[in-house]
Specification:
mainly beta, lipopolysaccharide transport protein A fold, 45-stranded antiparallel sheet, 1 helix, rod-shaped
Length: 648
């Protein structure tokens, strides 16, 4: 915007100078005529038909130079002057050379002029032409000077040309007392692809201001800004703009307005002030509903519509650097890789690169809604380049980042969402819940409710297809608890996998269906795979199992669930050792299967050994132990060692 402002201010100023020069022509004619009047020895002819206003004298080849301190100010020349009895002088071939500190400046020429020696009013007739040393020109066809009001007014269109710059105005008026230029009846300036349109332009040189009382529009390519009223304050007369104020309902559009890349602004008032670095400090505000900004042109979103009450920003010569919105912010976004969403916060910041919005940050009381999901936090950062949204809690308060969906809820210190990959990552004291998920049986009849979890890190991928908890993962559902270093869940397959210090706890009623069943089952292992739809859980590596009645160890332990998600069979493999707490019986085997409903254990090995509390033992390649009635059935080669109780 600063480059555009410099151009149109400079060229509007050039038009002012040109019209001012035209006024000086008249002043010069007036002065020269008053000094030339003593030429009474000349005999003026009486023109035929001029009885009402006869000629009183003719002057030819007039030339006058005005100087101050020996330096020329202007030089006035004319081909011929005809004086009349009414006081009007008709001048032909006017030429005025202006000087600046003795150096030749613009040259003004006019085909003819009329000057009244009594009223000092003057008229110029065209073409009137002003030539600048730089090559620029100003032309108009006619104008008049009113001495009483010291005002010069053109009676025809004014045109300024310099290189690729063209400026036009329907009328120009210069008020000498106020040092004020008014361009009216439609002013249009075009330069290097930039166009300024205004109904009226008022330049007050003494105040160093340019006003657009009836509005203006500046267009550069597909970018434009327009307002019903505007004021430009110059750093110095004819200098660059220092402050620009647009009022009454401002609208603007950035480059690319015809396609995806156009950004838009709507505000009641916009103030732009140049800082010491050559940038513009922008302040947009409203007393109505909103200041609105529409951002486009990113690979991450089609459009972001930001509404606020106060908007501030920094505008560099090659485009915006940043924006800050305060006093309440609403955001509507259409991402490339996700459904539309909205957000609100107390404040917002936007960063730009190469004129396009890249990152946006919402601050304080952040709420984001979309796709049935609501996210909250103290701060939210939208990165267009990475295509991610980062939510942060307040480290100095109790406010945490959170995401809530119809299926669950997550809270943590930080949450990162990637629309592009369908990925969510939560870090720092993660807690949450998830419905329609079960660990080690759903406990539907007991009203277990949703699955709750906690960890230091949560990763959700595939738009909710997979979940992974790391660093002290804990999951609980009703009376069930699972802890591990690392736990993952695949939604479609219904599979839970855990590794590292795995510990599972669930009610003993799942392995003892009697009404008297109480207590809990605890299984510890190195890893766990639970297949909900397959009805199977497999613990591997140094497995340790305990319930109110038994203690078991094995290399691997598999539990199968029935349609009610209760355990119907337990299978242990590798270095199996089972001890019945009530009787003290201990069984060792390579493989054992327990039928929960029948209360029997079928074991095989080389050999299987069952020993009671007295030390009596039986060995065989296959053994069936009925824990319900205490009976043992052996098959294959058998060895029995019996210690009578009294002999011990």
């Amino acid at each position: 915007m600063s480059a555009i402002a410099r151009k149109w201010i400079r060229y509007v100023t050039a038009i002012l100078i040109a019209v001012s020069i035209a006024a000086l022509v008249v002043i010069g004619v007036q002065r020269s005529r008053s000094m030339a009047r003593p030429a009474g020895d000349r005999t003026p002819p009486v023109a035929e038909g001029e009885v009402d206003d006869p000629a009183v004298g003719i002057y030819t080849g007039f030339e006058y130079v005005e100087s101050i301190a020996g330096k020329a100010i202007f030089a006035l020349r004319s081909l011929r002057t005809l004086g009349r009895s009414s006081g009007w002088h008709e001048i032909e071939g006017v030429q005025l050379q202006l000087y600046d500190a003795g150096v030749a400046g613009p040259v003004v020429t006019a085909a003819a002029a009329s000057f009244n020696v009594e009223t000092r009013d003057a008229e110029l007739r065209g073409p009137i032409h002003v030539s600048f040393p730089s090559g620029g020109t100003v032309t108009t066809q006619s104008g008049h000077f009113e001495a009483s009001s010291r005002r010069f007014v053109t009676d025809s269109e004014v045109v300024f040309m310099s290189g690729g710059t063209v400026a036009e105005a329907g009328q120009a008026m210069y008020l000498m007392n106020d040092d004020q230029l008014v361009l009216a009846d439609g002013a249009l300036l075009t330069s290097g692809g930039t166009t300024l349109q205004a109904d009226t332009i008022v330049y007050q040189r003494g105040r160093g201001t340019i006003e657009f009382p009836h509005g203006c529009k500046v267009v550069q390519g597909e970018a434009w800004i327009m307002a019903p009223s505007a004021t430009v304050e110059l750093a110095e007369p004819e200098g660059p703009p220092q402050r620009v104020t647009f009022r009454g309902g401002v609208k603007a559009r950035g480059p690319g307005g015809g396609g995806r890349d156009g950004s838009e602004l709507a505000a009641e008032t916009v103030v732009a002030e140049r800082d010491g670095h050559g940038n513009w400090q922008i302040d947009a505000s409203t007393t109505g509903d909103w200041v609105a900004v529409v951002l486009r042109g990113s690979d991450a979103f089609f459009e972001r519509r930001l509404r606020t009450r106060i908007l501030r920003g920094v505008l560099a010569p090659d485009g915006p650097l940043n924006l800050r919105a305060d006093d309440g912010v609403c955001l509507d976004e259409i991402p490339v890789d996700a459904d539309p969403r909205s957000a609100e916060a107390a404040a917002a910041r936007v960063w730009f690169k190469d004129g396009l919005a890249t990152d946006m940050q919402l601050e304080q009381q952040v709420v984001i809604r979309g796709e049935g999901i609501e996210a909250t936090g103290y701060r939210a950062r939208f990165s267009s380049i990475a295509g991610i949204t980062m939510l942060h809690g307040d480290p100095t308060a109790l406010e945490r980042a959170s995401v809530t969906s119809p299926r669950g809820h997550i809270t943590s210190d930080q949450i990162q969402i990637s629309d592009r990959d369908g990925r969510l990552e939560a870090r720092g004291k993660v807690q949450g819940s998830l419905s329609e998920v079960a660990i080690l049986g759903s406990e539907t009849g007991d009203g277990a409710g949703p699955l709750h979890f906690a960890a230091e890190l949560l990763e959700v991928t595939g738009s909710g297809a997979s979940y992974r908890l790391r660093d002290g993962a804990r999951l609980w559902q009703g009376k069930r608890l699972l802890t591990a270093d690392d736990v993952s869940y695949r939604e479609e397959a219904g599979v839970v996998e855990a590794s590292g210090h795995v510990r599972a706890t669930f009610p003993s009623s799942q392995v003892d269906r009697s009404e008297a069943a109480a207590g809990e089952v605890v299984i510890a292992a190195r890893s766990l795979t639970y297949e909900r739809f397959g009805g199977r859980a497999v613990f591997r590596g140094d497995v340790r199992y305990s319930d109110p009645d038994n203690v078991l160890s094995a290399t691997e332990l598999a539990a199968e669930f029935d349609e009610q998600d209760e355990i119907r069979k337990v299978e242990a493999t590798g270095d199996v050792e089972l001890r019945e707490l009530a009787t003290g019986r201990t069984m060792t085997a390579q493989h054992a299967i327990r039928d929960v409903e029948q209360g029997t254990v079928v074991a095989t090995g080389s050999p299987v050994r069952l020993e009671d509390a007295t030390g009596s033992a039986v060995s065989s390649s296959s053994l069936t132990w009925n824990q319900a009635d205490g009976s043992v059935t052996v098959a294959g080669g058998t060895e029995t060692i019996y210690y009578p109780e009294e002999g011990r």
